[in-house]
Design a protein that fits this description.
Shape of chain B: globular
Radius of gyration of chain A: 13 Å
Order of helices and strands of chain B: EEEEEEEEEEE
Oligomer: heterodimer
Shape of chain A: globular
Number of strands of chain B: 11
Strand content of chain B: over 45%
Number of helices of chain B: 0
Largest sheet of chain A: 6 strands, mixed
Distance between the termini of chain A: 38 Å
Structural class of chain B: mainly beta
Strand content of chain A: over 45%
Number of strands of chain A: 11
Chain lengths: 112, 114
């Protein structure tokens, strides 16, 4: 039972354009949603988060949108840069121990 | 501030052998996590420690996997005996407190079981 889903395994965008990465979840009890970025041979690094009581959080070029009724969140990167090329994981926090449940990841390739 | 340290970075073993991974979290972080990331999947939590006590080990295959965190600092994860399906990257992470949503990850140990 996959509670957090990233249905796009990969995404390719041109430098300077917008990248939109999507994530769907099934458990309405999740209270925090996070995006992590992972380069090859490195561990994931935290990028941005959003509380379930908000619908938008912005940090520089990165914005996360949450649509609770649709159980959907998205990460927008504007403008995209070649250094943004990485795997992006969506994660949700919930349960008695507040553990993180990760999606399968989306490989973003930003073309110069 | 030093990050989460893990060793070894790579390990190749035969099935039915045993293997151990080591993790040193960020200084002062009370919570330590071990994740298993199989190729093409997201990280899956195996075990979570708060100081040296286990908070969640519901997804740890206890017949072959064990983990300890002595003195509430560094931790070891052991697999004995290993199976082919244990081939994965084992990630250690730490956070200042339980459920701290920002978890800091180490580089991982890539295990290949032949």
């Amino acid at each position: 039972d996959q509670q957090v889903k990233q249905n796009s395994p990969s995404l390719s965008v041109q430098e300077g354009r917008i990248s939109i990465l999507n994530c769907d979840y099934t458990n309405s009890m999740f209270d925090y949603f996070l995006w992590y970025k992972k380069y090859p041979a490195e561990g994931p690094t935290f990028l941005i988060s959003i509380s379930s009581i908000k619908d938008k959080n912005e940090d520089g070029r990165f914005t996360v949108f949450l649509n609770k009724s649709a159980k959907h969140l998205s990460l927008h990167i504007v403008p995209s840069q070649p250094g943004d090329s990485a795997v992006y994981f969506c994660a949700a926090r919930g349960g008695a121990t507040n553990k993180l449940i990760f999606g399968t990841g989306t490989l973003l390739a930003v073309q110069p | 501030e030093a990050g989460v340290a893990q060793s070894p970075r790579y390990k190749i073993i035969e099935k039915r052998q045993s293997v151990a991974f080591w993790c040193n979290p960020i200084s002062g972080h009370a919570t330590l996590y071990w994740y298993q990331q199989i190729l093409g999947q997201g990280p899956k939590l195996l075990i979570q420690f708060q100081n040296n006590g286990v908070v969640d080990d519901s997804q740890l295959p206890k017949d072959r996997f064990s983990a300890e965190r002595l003195k509430g600092v560094d931790s070891t994860l052991k697999i004995q005996p290993a199976k082919l399906e244990d081939s994965a990257v084992y990630l250690c992470a730490s956070s200042p407190s339980t459920g701290g949503y920002e978890q800091f990850f180490g580089p991982g140990t890539r295990l290949t079981v032949l």
